[in-house]
Amino acid sequence: MQLLIQLLYLYPTMLKQIFDQYLQDSNYSQKEPQELYEPLDYMLSLGGKRIRPLSVLIACSLFSDNIKQALPAAYAVELFHNFSLIHDDIMDNSDIRRGKPTVHKKWDENTAILSGDAMFVYAYEHLSKLPPAVLPAALMAFNEAAIGVCEGQQKDINFEKRLANSVTTEEYIDMIELKTSILIYGAMKIGALVGGASQEDAERVGLFGKNLGIAFQLQDDYLDTFGDTAKVGKRIGGDILQNKKTYLVIKALELAEEASKVELIDWLTHQVSLEQEQAKIDKVTALFHQLEIPKELQTAIKKYNDLALENLAAIELSDEKKKPLLDLLHQLMEREY
Amino acid sequence: MQLLIQLLYLYPTMLKQIFDQYLQDSNYSQKEPQELYEPLDYMLSLGGKRIRPLSVLIACSLFSDNIKQALPAAYAVELFHNFSLIHDDIMDNSDIRRGKPTVHKKWDENTAILSGDAMFVYAYEHLSKLPPAVLPAALMAFNEAAIGVCEGQQKDINFEKRLANSVTTEEYIDMIELKTSILIYGAMKIGALVGGASQEDAERVGLFGKNLGIAFQLQDDYLDTFGDTAKVGKRIGGDILQNKKTYLVIKALELAEEASKVELIDWLTHQVSLEQEQAKIDKVTALFHQLEIPKELQTAIKKYNDLALENLAAIELSDEKKKPLLDLLHQLMEREY
To answer: What percent helix, strand, coil does chain A show, rounded to 5?
Structure first.
């Protein structure tokens, strides 16, 4: 068994296969009314990296050979994540998710609201299957993450209504911490608890996930503007065209002198015609380089990486046992897409 | 203490006061971002009969003198109910709730979606405060009720798209069982569990609540058409004017001969002008009387009342202990509003 777990460490794709199998077996095709349940299967079939459920399983595997006991929790976290995507897509008026129509586009808004709600209940239903001994602590971590995700989405909505130069990088980090990384915190903490970790170690594993999540999100911002199209697999500069208030923009407005600031705000408060798109991307990117934003962003990413490494060091396990978390960190940080 | 509980039995308004105090103390005015939390306090301040949280407290009081231990569960059930109202109001396009603008009218749809979601998480957060010994069973009952409410809302939406004469009374009862009474089932079962009831007794108390809930909903249908305006406090015939597919309509279409059926369908598929409203109400009500619908409906109400009494009889408590449930049943059934 121990050997198998070692192999799993080496092949995180195997963990993903175990999870995907569980996800397939838990489909809603037999449930009625089908108008309510079809969108659940549709949304879950769109795929994705499954970072959150894998975080649950990896965290569990640090403390226990019995990874399967964490599958209901992994599934609960993935359900919650997908529920929040369904509702966010309505709020953000997004038509496409992973190359397919979003639920409210394929069906309608009412279906997206209600099917999302049902998915949310099923998240708790699966979480409730955890052993009674870990249930209260796991629920508490899950609730904290779920509330954080709602607060993060509201803060994101509030940001979009504010002028970019009125938002600070601290506020931006607080927002992505809530909107994205608090669920990785919850996922890792719950996985560790299910594996039998002490409360203290579970908290450390969770904090590792939180800091890794922030670094991951900041790297997303980096790659969208400074990445390599061939590797990222989509057009570079999408955030700039969408006038998104990323870390890059906020930091640039903090550092820029008056003339550059006015120019940047002008670019980022207007839509451009199709012919002008590349010129806008080039111009804004040049401004970012001038202000040394790539270096600033790398410093910020390193800060959260280092915090994650500190959390890792504090976990009371042998270095060999901790290796999967270190591998995960390297894998996510060295990615170029 | 026992005397106090007896007094509480006699004065359910006192239970409501205890609950309302808890609700006031649990407000969200200190939480950020306030755009997310203001609608929660607004919605909860609109009042209501608080039947669901009172069901939790009454069920708990059957088995324990310590009613306060059930307050987090009572609050969780009320939060879930209000969350479902916020989202239902979007789906049903309702502008007014308890005489005030609905959340999506006072703010906007995105706010109503996201604040509803946050309210939903807080329902689980408060439920999670229950003693670990009853938590798994209470969660299971809550999840079952929550899923039922979502399925019931979807079935209601489906009904509205179907022709009235294609819906059976069995399907209608199934829909109101899910949409309304399954939450009273969950409320009573959870309250009994918190009070220390056996699984069997908790289930019986829950089933009592479920059957009472169905009878209650059918009586709502009855009073809306056959009630007394002065007592009901609103215009009689509102359901008829809104062409609602109530038990009355469905039963009438089951019983009517071809000519009456055609006439009824004609009335119920058209909106009438203001001047014709009373004529429509009078004509449809006369048709109902002709088909003896009041008697049919009273028979159906009695059926669920009797089932509730059977559930009550099976609970392993003295008659004296069961009295609050019997009082509740009489109170709800003898109401004329």
So the answer is: 80, 0, 20
pLDDT for A153-194, tens place per residue? 999 999 988 887 889 999 999 999 999 899 999 999 999 999
pLDDT of residue A177: 96
ipTM: 0.93
**What architecture (CATH level 2) is domain A1-129?**
Orthogonal Bundle (1.10)
Q: Which element (helix H / strand E) includes B96?
A: strand B96-97
Gap between the Cα atoms of B164 and B240, Å rounded: 13
* CB-CB neighbours of B6 under 10 Å: 13
Share of chain B residues as helix, strand and coil, in percent rounded to the nearest 5? 80, 0, 20
- Six-digit token string for B57: 């407290």
| Sole residue written with tokens 């996930």 | A209
Shortest CA distance to B155 belongs to which of A104, A118, A87, A120?
A118
Calculate the dihedral angle through the C-alpha atoms of B88, B94, B97, B103, rounding to the nearest 10 degrees. 70
**Which tokens is B184 given?**
């009273």
Contact B204/B311 with Cβ under 8 angstroms?
yes
The whole-model pTM stands at: 0.93
A114, A128, A157: residue with CB nearest B91: A114
Assess contact for B64 and B195: CB atoms under 8 A. yes
Superfamily of domain A148-337 in the CATH hierarchy: Farnesyl Diphosphate Synthase (1.10.600.10)
B158 vs A contacts (CB less than 8 Å): 33, 35
Blockwise average pLDDT, block size 10, chain A, 337 residues = 46 84 95 97 93 95 95 98 97 92 97 98 98 97 98 94 87 95 97 98 98 94 88 82 92 94 92 93 96 96 96 95 88 74
**Start and end residues for every CATH 1.10.600.10 domain found in chain A:** 1-129, 148-337
The answer to whether B142 and B79 are in contact (CB under 8 A) is no
User: Under DSSP, is residue A100 helix (H, G, I), strand (E, B) or coil?
Assistant: strand
Nearest by CB to residue B90, choosing from A113, A125, A151, is A113
Compute the nearest-CA separation of A34 from chain B (Å). Answer: 9
Residue ranges, chain B, pLDDT below 50:
1-9
Residues in chain B whose Cβ is within 8 Å of chain A? 32-33, 35-36, 84, 87, 90-91, 109-110, 113-114, 117-118, 120-122, 124-125, 128, 132, 135-136, 139-140, 143, 146-147, 150-151, 153-155, 157-158
Pick the residue of B90, B143, B183 with the most A CBs within 10 A to test the interface with A by mutation. Answer: B143
